[in-house]
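Notes continue from the previous slide.

Worked example: a multi-chain complex. Inputs as given:
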Amino acid sequence: MKAAPPAAEPAAGDAYLVARAREGYLDAYELLVQRHSAMAYRVALRLTGKHHDAQDVAQEALIAAWENLDRFQGGSSFSTWLYQIVTRRALNKVTRGGDARSLDLLPDLADPAMEPADKAERNLTVDAVTDALLALPFPQRTVIVLHHFERLSYAEIASVTGATEPAVRSHLFRARRALAKTLQEWK
Amino acid sequence: MPAKTPLDAISLPCGADVDLLLEQAAQGRGADWDAHQQACAHCQAALGELTALWEPVAKAAAGPVSAPPGLVTAVMSQVRRLVHDIWYTLESTELGAVRIAARTVAALARDSARMIPGVRVALGRSIHGEVAAAAEKATFGHRHPHAAVGVLGRTAVVDLAVAVGYGDPAHQVAREIQRHVTATLRDQAGLRDVTVNITIDDVIDGDDGR
């Protein structure tokens, strides 16, 4: 049998990798970290509004997930569980750090291939959304980020936040209206 | 006095709930009119306005955000600190000791296994916890200052968890992995006696697993 080049992307599912990581296969956990680190950082960034805070939150959350892997029941997906840890850590960070307002939310959003004028307009848009998002109370910000940015369903958000689906929907109604009103003033 | 907008009210003159219209617009369905909306100028105007209002959010949400460089490395470095390191001592002479971290041996074995056709996933583990504990007791005198366990000699036990592709001959793939990994550890790590235990614990078909 002839040796083939290594596969670019292992195709194992999260549940498989979690099970192996629990057995002591560190590289199984490394694959999970590679797969989910962008999500952890992205959510933390949108919730805290600061790059350094987001980096701290993402790092702490991924380490906490390793430390608590034995407690992960598998009733939800690994990503849902990680969303939960990131969200809680972000809340702690925002609560401890006071005002989370900052203009460096979504710093990588601008497409390098865009024309400078387009990029400037895009940055203005991002800044406006950033400010509007950070002006929301944390629970409202969380449901907006999880639903409209991360595309989580009501059921998934309920699982992340521990709320009921009707409560999630109700939070979303209030959050959307508040966000839209702020954007209306900006326009 | 600023013009009135849909957001100034709970419902439109036709009775339509503004929050439901905003939900529709925010979900990108502002142009998917139901039977009422097809005949209602209030709803059509409100949906147009709310869609335009929500556009910056949709744009911001669609933008890619990648993890900062070094995040994965920082996390794994911290995780490895939480796990006891195990070391193989390859040589111990008057010039000093040559040691190799067991996780490096595991990584070499894993990467080597991934080269074999039919292997979809290979994860490496160098030694069981109980074996490590026994080794620690036996070789306490050789312990590396930063290591929990030192194992003297050029022998290694490597566990590999492997998932193979559907239809690949698992036993044949396993034998090939054992041969290839043994040769790699002998050539690249200088380990003389290598035991490669293979557990085939999954069969992956096509794009399975995501």
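Summary box: The radius of gyration of chain B is 31 Å. The CA atoms of residues 90 and 153 of chain B lie 6 Å apart.
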